Amino acid sequence: MERVNRRTTLKLMGLGAALLAAGSRGFAQQTPTADQLVKGKHAKLIVLSQRPIVLETPFDLLASQPERTPKELLYVRNNVDLPGYNTVEGAGLEGWTLEVGGLVDKPFTVEAKELLALPQHEVTMVLQCSGNGRSLYQPRPSGNPWGRGGVGNVTFRGVRLKDLLAAKGAKPTEKALFITAHASRQGNAAEFVRSVPIHALEEALLALSMNGEPLPAVHGGPVRLVFPGYFGVNNVKWVAKVEFTEGENTTAEQMPRYRVPTIPNTHLPFLPQEPGGRYPYTFANSRPNWLVNVNSFIFAPLEGQTVEGPYVRVEGVAFNDGIVPIVSVEVSTNGGRTWHQATLERTGRSYGWVRWRTTLYLRPGEHQVMARAWDAAGRSQPLDGNLAWNERGYEYNGVMRVKFTVA
């Protein structure tokens, strides 16, 4: 009897293991990789959400392309998914129309293919999700747990919105204070609307290409309304309608989402919020995630890396909203007690990121390096990024710290 029980037990154990393995394989099959969700994306992109699609660029892959982020590696943050557009291939202009109206003296509708006949303009800019760095806040706020890979440096090319208006003989009226963009709702896509201040018209671009290729469908092709210097959410994908309005739109993506607390009638960027607390968002006591704040990243050494010494090259990128230049990047290896000036690759205003580098003399052993950027307006990064904690985890720009070993 004992022998039978043992045999039966072993069979049951084997059957259980087989079922467990089969279940694991089934689960793996149900969790698609980035390239399965979006045709042409790098398989190693981190899937933060399958619907709507949210993909983060692993930091080592982001750092491997310091000049310009290729379409295969660029993060994806969709608030809505346009059916059939989950690919890095370009979307055709044929049949796509753009309506321009609201507080404009001559409303009009234009075929997207007509934009090719107008003067083309190019801009290299940082495209960054408002929630980039969210997981660095403590306690972790709600939303997708972004590391630092919700960002990229890309070149858009297309027609300036103001040039299109001029070509059509149209002007916004004096009451127009905002540009409000609507994404296409084809395929019964959910509504997505964003408003930005009217002064953004000066640089607003109806982008038709990215990095010298037709604008990838998943990144807003065939036409995306781009505002250099603004967080990614404002750069409306698949734009179908542009309105000039007197006020901000009141859809969920404008209120209460994509906002941070403010102190009314002051110039302070944040109203300190108790970590873990809630906030009663209104138009009066909060501001939208519009302009990108000052930030910098360390691309080398990478976290946990072992490098040859004693002369260690430290490099990365810095960026802001492009209104004024980045003027300085400092690095520290003693927790911020003293700082060493890095060399900037270029000076002057830029919507794209600016590369920086320096060489440090470091003894063998473990080290931590910190980096912070300054711009011409005197803006910099806080040593403690948690000072700007907010319940949705937007606009993190705390000083980056990297631990590594010198051999």
In the sheet with the most strands, the strands line up as 5-4-13-8-9
Percentage of residues in DSSP E strands: 25-35%
In this structure, how is the largest beta sheet organized?
5 strands, mixed
**Proportion of helical residues:** 10-25%
End-to-end distance = 63 Å
The overall strand count is 24
Low-confidence stretches: 1-28
Keywords: Metal-binding, Molybdenum, Oxidoreductase, Signal
Domain Moybdenum cofactor oxidoreductase dimerisation: 291-405
Pfam family, one: Mo-co_dimer
Organism: Thermus brockianus
What is the structure about, briefly put?
The protein is 11% helix and 31% strand. With 407 residues, the protein is mainly β. The protein has a 5-stranded mixed beta sheet with strand order 5-4-13-8-9, with no helix packed on it. Strands 6, 7, 10, 11 and 12 form a 5-stranded antiparallel beta sheet that branches.
